[in-house]
Each structure stands twice: as structure tokens, then as C-alpha cells.
Amino acid sequence: MSFAELWAEIAPIGLTDKGYLRYALGEAELVLRDWFRNQAFRRDMTVTEDGNGNLFAWCGEPWADGVVLTGSHFDSVPYGGGYDGPLGIVSAFLAVDRLPPGRNVAVVAFCEEEGGRFGVPCLGSRLLTGAIPVDRAAALCDRDGITFGQALGGRPTGERALNKVRAVVELHIEQGRALEVPVGVAGAIWPHGRWRLDFRGSADHAGTTRMADRRDPMLTYAYTVLAANKEARLSGAHATMGRVSVEPNATNAIPSLVTGWLDARAADESTLDALVAAVTKRAEDRAGRDGTEVSVTAESVTAEVAFDSPLALRLSAILDGAPILPTGAGHDAGVLSAHVPTAMLFVRNPTGVSHSPAEHATDADCEAGVDALAAVLEELTRAPAAEELT
Amino acid sequence: MSFAELWAEIAPIGLTDKGYLRYALGEAELVLRDWFRNQAFRRDMTVTEDGNGNLFAWCGEPWADGVVLTGSHFDSVPYGGGYDGPLGIVSAFLAVDRLPPGRNVAVVAFCEEEGGRFGVPCLGSRLLTGAIPVDRAAALCDRDGITFGQALGGRPTGERALNKVRAVVELHIEQGRALEVPVGVAGAIWPHGRWRLDFRGSADHAGTTRMADRRDPMLTYAYTVLAANKEARLSGAHATMGRVSVEPNATNAIPSLVTGWLDARAADESTLDALVAAVTKRAEDRAGRDGTEVSVTAESVTAEVAFDSPLALRLSAILDGAPILPTGAGHDAGVLSAHVPTAMLFVRNPTGVSHSPAEHATDADCEAGVDALAAVLEELTRAPAAEELT
Description:
By secondary structure, chain A is α+β, with helices and mostly antiparallel strands. The first copy, chain A, is built from 11 helices and 17 strands. In chain A, the strands form 4 sheets. In chain A, strands 3, 4, 5, 6, 7, 8, 15, 16 and 17 form a 9-stranded mixed sheet that branches. A 4-stranded antiparallel sheet of chain A has the order 11-13-9-14, covered by helices on one side. In chain A, strands 1-2 form a two-stranded antiparallel ribbon.
């Protein structure tokens, strides 16, 4: 089966006129999970869930010793693209088709990778590896007040031993413009995190309150947005404030509360720490002048991930010297890499656009990605024992 | 009946832990409308609706020649105060109680004064006076996609002749800190309006997109917020950007669209025009540097309202020289003043806070407001013909 044929099955699911809306455990993502089960059924694979929202399709016995996991996630950012995540799952099923029979491999769909619904990215893989307490994950709320535990239908089961997993390989669309050939191998993930900034002022009437009497937190927010951009440019890092929430959010009222989120990433941790400290300092200084208050809360911070280096070199060799490149994007593979030899393959993104409906990869590059993933899995699932792997 | 007794009946309606939520034709406001009907019933007043969402309680025949209207509105801004609007209705019923029998007076509750639900303030009085086309009003949408026509239960009936109305008097809490005695009289309403600013850029991945490659409309928005504040201060006007909407509004995505609303007011129209032009110019300049686009749309613009000056002087005289003061806030009385001799009474606001749950007036000042309104109505509804009124 060609990539384009299988891809066409999922392309319409969750597509709105503004882009893909595939929230974890939301309507479209549940349809994609059914599609996953159906793919497994067609291939005589056994489907299990792990109690954390992650879905597995096993060629052999579930959790058999030495299994190689491959896959990605179905969920999208709100109004995002169709490739970020699903490409790794579709490619995984197609790569399995190209393996000799009897290989110990499983396809996985991780839950809530984007954090678009419950706020913490890689939630499924964090639970699986014990990187987030079960109670904290269960209590995370979406914008409608539904908790992750409610959406999941129960308390997550949390960490499980991964010592039987020989390796994890996640294929993903590349998200910058860093790849000039169809397929590359991940070297490292930049340290990155999300910080919530609450700016508090005083609600008041927009028409009657003298400018000098105001304590308007929108001003402090606006200044901080510009400061974050400037500080990131100065330090060669990335800073984005793309999400905001306002109370009461009325045209004729000065806000009482503006909440902004800072997404910050840098090539190393000291640069990232310095960036967040500088943005915080400038927000606090401005709050002093605006008569407002600001508090900064880290919602998730991920240290630098250096993928298993011998494994990356081996994959590059299998793929005739495919380039090894770093990325600013977080991935489930990054979370798993602390526990299991883990690697990522990237498929070329000609425009570099991601988290947008304009995200795109060519069918030819995606087909090359499937071939590369099949070649890698063929090697990794061959007879030799785990210690020879890397 | 004392002010405090009647006030206590409505104080809990629509009160949430963040302030009052009394959207026009929403749950709490419908309860307040029932309370209004009940008050009319207790006083043998006849209740009618005008097909535009406005509610009337008549002491005599509906729309009898020479009637004096008094009242205000029930709806609040989201999470606003309890006095802005309802004070004028509660005071109207209490003032009617203090009039000699047989006076030709009616209490009115206007619909959607704040524009908090359907976006156009003074919607009920604009319809009644023909200041907004019926079809445009019917099609206005709230944030859930419900139109005003749907909420009303049919197409508004629109303009009606107001030539039988002798005068309109609206009592309202003052909203700055302009009043140092319990009661004052309105002189004029500043020209004011609402402009929607759409900032368009390119959605992209927050982690992987190089800073130099971004077209981030949040930056242009933030710059414009600060520019509006600065321009208003420079020109002695008021500018507020208290409402914002973002797409996709995700922490890890650069937005594709940021929509901000500018509320601007000034003592005269040339200052207001210059302010809006300056903000627009600065937004456009910055958009050029950010690689984004901005478009500015006037959603509602209200010219300066000078209330009937002889009537204001007469009220001030009735009230022993109560001060006459301008205001930056729009009111239904301002809309009606183009058609009928119209006046406003203000009740002192000790902190100046409005459009906030902290909005407050003392019971003693509110009681003084009722006395003042009763004295004014007593004069205005006395025998002499309309032409002697002013």
C-alpha cells in the first residue's frame, strides 16, 4: 500500500475550515483511535491501552521482551497541521508491512503530545515514564473544566517498567527548514518550557477612569510580549507568547487579570534560564510602573534531550549518511529517551511551517520516510541481543 | 419602602464569585425582568414590551400623551458591578412611589445597554429611535453564535414615534470620581466609539521557527496596546484595549490572527478622530516591520451628546444647585436625547470604580438619588404643557 493511499484515509478527520482540530480524547482524535484499531485488526496485531491514554498495536505478544516501539501522536494544536504526529503513526503501520514476518515490533499512539487540551505536552509519555505524578495529571483541566481523569474515564495507571523495550523510534515531520534531503536523524532537542504569567490589575470603566488612575494589566502584558521577543533575539533563543486569556475581556472594561503564556527554547539550559529571568525581570519592572502585579509560574520545563548518540549514528549509517540535526520542538521520544534507547527520524518540511494548516510534506518525501523507517526497524528487530544494539 | 430594602431583592441575582454576570436576555437578566414585572404588578402598573427588548411599566395608559419615562438597564458587563444600570430602575420604582397619584410616568428597562453580549451598546434604545437598522441588529451574534433576533424570539420591531414622550430622565451611578456631593446632573457625554483591529500574521511552530522568519501578529497587537495608551495620555483622551481574541491561542503556536478592540473617548470629536488616526498609523507602521497586516473597523461610534441644556439647568435648580458634569460613559439617555428632551441624574461613586465588582455607592447616597429623582419627576409630570417644560 502506498503512503498516499493510507494517508488519504485519515486526511479528512478533524479538518475544519481553519485547520486541524484534533484535541486529545476529543471527537476527531477518538475517530483516529478507531482507525488505529482497525489498522491493527487488518494486520492481525493485538491492541492494548496502557491506562494513560496511550494506544499500542503489537505484532507479537504485548510487552514481549526486546520489542521495538515506533509511532507518534494523533492530537494536534488547535487549528494545526495534519502531519505533526499522525505522519509517524501512518508511517509506522506502512513500515511494519515492509518487515519480514515475526519481527517483535509495536506501533504506538501517544496521548496529548501537544498539551493543546490539558496544558502539559507529552502527557501520555510522561505518565508512562513516571515523569509526572498521576494525581497531578488526573487533575489537569481543559478549557471547559473537564479533567484529564474524566476524559480518560478513570485515574491514569502511571509509570510502568520499560526494561523489555529494546528501542523506540519516532518518525516526525521536521518543523523548521533544517532538512534539505528527504530524511534526517534527530541529534538533540533544545531545552524548553512553558511559563504562565499572571498580570493582575484593577477592573474599571474604560470610559470614565482617568488614564493616571488606571492599573491596567493589559499594558504590562503588552510590554512583556515585546520584551520576550527582544530578549530571545538578543540571545539567539526562541520566545513566543501565542496564548492569552483576559478577565473580564470586555471592550468597555479595563481588565482585572491578563494571563499570558511564554513558550521559550534555547540551544542550552543556561541561555534558557537567562532568557526567562530577563523576561521576568522586565515584566516586574513594568508592573511597578503600571501599578499592576505579575507572577510567573513554570508549567512544564524540559531539560535538553540528547538522543542516544551511538543509535543516532547507526541510523544515519543505515540511511546512507542521513544528516543528524537538532530541533527546537519537544517530542514523546524526548521523554522516553531518558529510559530507553530512543531515536527520531525527520521527514523534510519544504516550507518549515508547522503548527499551522499550511504544514506540508510531499508524498515522495513521506514515502522515503516509510522506507527509511522500515530499514531502521529491519535492523533493530533483527536477531542480535539488546547489548549489541548501540 | 427604603432603598436598601428594595435593593436587597435584586442584589443576589447574577452575582458570581467574580462579579455580576447579567448578559442581556441571559439567565440572570431574565430573572430581573420577572422582578420588574412583579414590581409593576405590586403598583398596578401596566407592563408592555416594545419588540426591541425594552420593557415598560406604565402608571397610566401605555404611550399616553405627555408621558415622562424614567429608568435604565439591567444588563452588566461580564463580571461587572451591580449598580451600573439596575440602580436607575430600582430608584425609578421608588420615586414613582413618592409621586402624587395619577401622574403620567413610566419605568423603563432598556435592553443590552453595555453591548456585552451582542457587541453594540445601547442596542435597545438605538432600535427604539431608529439609530440602528433592524436587520443589522437582528443579525448581531453573541460569542456562542446566537443572534440578537434569536435571543429576542423574533425580528425587532424597530423605530417608533416618540412624540408623545414629554421627557426622559435616567438616574445612574457616576463612574469616575467627578461628583463630590450625593447627586449631580449630566451635562454632556464625550464622543466615543469602539474599533476592532484585526492583526493577521502566519501561524507557525513556536519551537522551531527562527525569530527572523516569523510573522507574529501578537507583536503588532502588543505594540498597538502600548501606542494607544501613550496617544491617549498625550491628547488628554481615554483609550482602552481590554478585549482580545487569538487564533489558534495555543502556547506552542505563533498566532495567525489577533483581534483587539479599542475603546476610545475624548472631550471633543476632533481629538477623538486624531487619537484613532494616530493609533491606526502606529499599528500600520509596526505591522510593516513585523511582516503582519492590520485592518481597523469602526464597530460603533457615538458623536458628542449635549443633553438638553435648559432641562439640565432646571433639574439643577430643582435640586438646589446640584452640579452639572460631563461623563465619558455612554448611556441610553444619550441615544434618546436626539429625539426627546432628556436628562440624567448621577449618584456619587466614592471610589470612581465601575465595570468592576468593586463598584459601590452608599445606601444614603442612593436614598438621596431616589429623593432627587422623585423631586424631578414631580416637577416634570405636573400639569403645564410640554412647551413649558424647558
